[in-house]
Structures are given as C-alpha cells and as structure tokens.
Amino acid sequence: ILHLISGCHQTPLEAIVAGGEKGHEVAAYVMNSTARIGSALGTEFAPYLGNVLPLVLAAAARAPEYKVQAASEADVDAKMGPGEQNVAVELRGGGKFEVRVNSWEIQQREVACQTLMHYVTDLGSCLGPFLKEILTVVLEVITPTATPEVRICAYGMLPKLLRCTARQPAPHDSSSPSLGQVAFNEAVGRLLTGLVREAEIVEQDDSGTEDSLEVLCVGLDTLSHVLEAGYSSQQKRDWTTMPLADEFLRPLMELLQRLI
After folding, report:
1. What pLDDT tens digit does each residue of the chain (260 aa) get?
2. In the chain, helix, strand, coil percent, each to 5?
3. 226, exposed or middle or buried, with CB in 10 Å at 0-12, 13-18, 19+?
4. Within a 10 A sphere around the Cβ of 15, how many other Cβ atoms?
5. Cα of 153 vs its chain's centroid, Å
6. CB–CB of 16/25 below 8 Å?
7. pTM for the full predicted model
8. Backbone angles phi, psi at 217, to 5 degrees
C-alpha cells in the first residue's frame, strides 16, 4: 500500500483529484482511504504525506463553479454535463434564470476537507512542513459560499492546527513573530468576519435554519478554543501579544450583542 502511495504524485491520485467523469466517482474513496491508512500507521505515514497532501489541499481549495444565465424552458431542460445539476429561478420583473452547479465538485471538496480533518487529528505532530499551506486553505474555506459541511470541518480544524503551530520551533530572528502567533492573528480576524456572516445567514435563512445554527455554534465554540489557546500561549510567554485591540474587540462585541 505504501509503495502505491509513494507513486501517487505521478499519476493515479493526481488524475483522480483533477476530475473527469470516472475520476469523480472514485476520488472520495481514494482520499478517504489515505486518511484511514494514515490513522492506522500514525507516524509511519509521515514520509508519504508529501505525496498526498498537496493533492488533497488542491481539492479542498477548489471552489465549485456556479453558472447563472437567463434561460428559457428549453434551456433548463437541456442536457447537462457530467455531475451538473440545475435549478430554475424566476425573479419578479427579471425573467427566468438557470443556476447550474457541479455536484461532484461540491462532494469532492467536502471529502477533501474531511480528509484534512483526519490528517490534522491523527497526524498533527507530523504536519510541520505543511502547516502554512494547510492553514491557508482552512482559513480560505471559511466563507458562506462553501457548504455547511466544509465550514464545520474548517472551524473544527483551526484549534487543532493552532496547537500544532505552538509546537513548532521559534524563529531564528527573535524579533520575528512565531508561526503560532501569525496563525492566531489571522485566525481570529477570519473567525470574527466569518461568524458575523454566519449570524446573518441564520437571520435570513427560512429553509435550512438547523444547518445554519449548527455551523454558527461550531464556529463560536472554535472561537472560544482559539482565544483560549492564545491566552495560554501568552501566559507561557510563547507569544508576546494577543490581537484583541479595538479592531478585534469591536466586531466581537457586536457579534455577541447580535446573538443575545
């Protein structure tokens, strides 16, 4: 199995994650398999992370494409491409529109994020060389355009990733902030922005309130864990400051006031 994984960067997994009709059918199984193998092998899987992580990160970062166009009844019923789904929307005074999205791409992104969650949970101590890339992708998918499953995964990974960054060696230049502090600063800002938007979604959502509330609750729990990690690191003098000046405290207070 490890011999096969060692060749993943050459063709099989790369071709699968890149797409294609047959590729999308098995991409989820391949990514899930690498996560389970990694969980079983633990640190023995570390040498192979470089073969699979870049591909999983690419799938997690790839946002599904949405196509919106004016459409007649004939257009809406026209044959769609592999994995595409559509819905007809009629706007008062604006005519009829067709929205198309590739459901395979949505599923692949969700599975990629779940796979990342497994890596972070089970192989956190081995992720040092990839932490920056993982953090970048995780913070980018905290957006309302991602599905609730993707956002919940992203929120759930953040505290674990911050704990991983706290264990990284301090920079050689003592005046430079550590990776942990940089990640914390970025995470707090993204979390507050994301949670304000999650609260707006809950207020506006008439059909999927339960899902929206779950995402908001997971996000708030993540924020509390992130702030706790920052406070703990400051107490240990690992970090010098916590970014809780007005630029962070104001939106935090506004968010809490809105929720109350």
Report:
1. 666 666 554 544 555 555 555 566 677 777 888 888 888 888 888 888 888 888 889 888 888 777 776 766 545 555 666 556 666 666 666 667 777 777 777 888 888 999 999 999 988 888 888 988 999 999 888 887 788 889 899 999 988 888 887 776 666 666 666 777 778 878 888 888 888 888 887 777 655 567 778 888 888 898 888 888 777 766 665 555 555 556 677 777 777 777 77
2. 70, 10, 25
3. buried
4. 15
5. 6
6. no
7. 0.76
8. -65, -40
Residues 6+ apart with CB under 8 A from 203: none
Q: How many residues does the chain have?
A: 260
Residue 64 CB burial class (10 angstroms; 0-12, 13-18, ≥19): middle
Question: How is residue 137 written in tokens?
Answer: 């992708």
| Residue listed under structure tokens 């791409």 | 105
